[in-house]
Design brief:
Structural class: mainly beta
Number of strands: 8
Strand content: 35-45%
Helix content: under 10%
CATH topology of one domain: Immunoglobulin-like
Order of helices and strands: EEEEEEEE
CATH class of one domain: Mainly Beta
Number of helices: 0
Length: 124
């Protein structure tokens, strides 16, 4: 019995590649990158820096429930992948990342030499 009739899409075993949308902000001390990665867990998420490239790689797989008959499938499952080229203005050894409610926050600290600072003037 058909409850809903929808156009069928071809389904393959290939993992769908997803480019996560990002917002990037700048503060005096950091560049902040926010990446939307719904469904990705910490265990299936990797953030790597190699040769001035920051790579975000996350996997969101469908929960296989063999006891139910799926009527509609609109969740996007697949591999989130995004790469950014870092400038030498970023302190690569101090980059950190946090995953909270499907949003990955990557903090890219600026090198000390590029942070704004006030120059004291000596009387003389």
């Amino acid at each position: 019995m058909e409850v809903l009739k929808m156009a069928e899409e071809k389904q393959t075993n290939e993992v769908k590649k997803i480019v996560p949308p990002v917002d990037i902000y700048e503060t005096d001390n950091d560049i902040i990158l926010l990446a939307d990665m719904p469904g990705v867990t910490k265990e299936n998420l990797h953030v790597d820096v190699n040769n001035e490239e920051l790579t975000i790689n996350g996997l969101f797989l469908e929960d296989e429930d063999n006891n139910s008959n799926k009527l509609v499938k609109e969740y996007i499952c697949g591999q989130y992948l995004r790469t950014f080229t870092l400038s030498d203005l970023i302190a690569q050894d101090k980059i950190n990342a946090k995953l909270d409610n499907g949003v990955l926050t990557v903090t890219l600290p600026k090198q000390e030499k590029v942070k704004p600072r006030k120059i004291e003037i000596e009387a003389g």
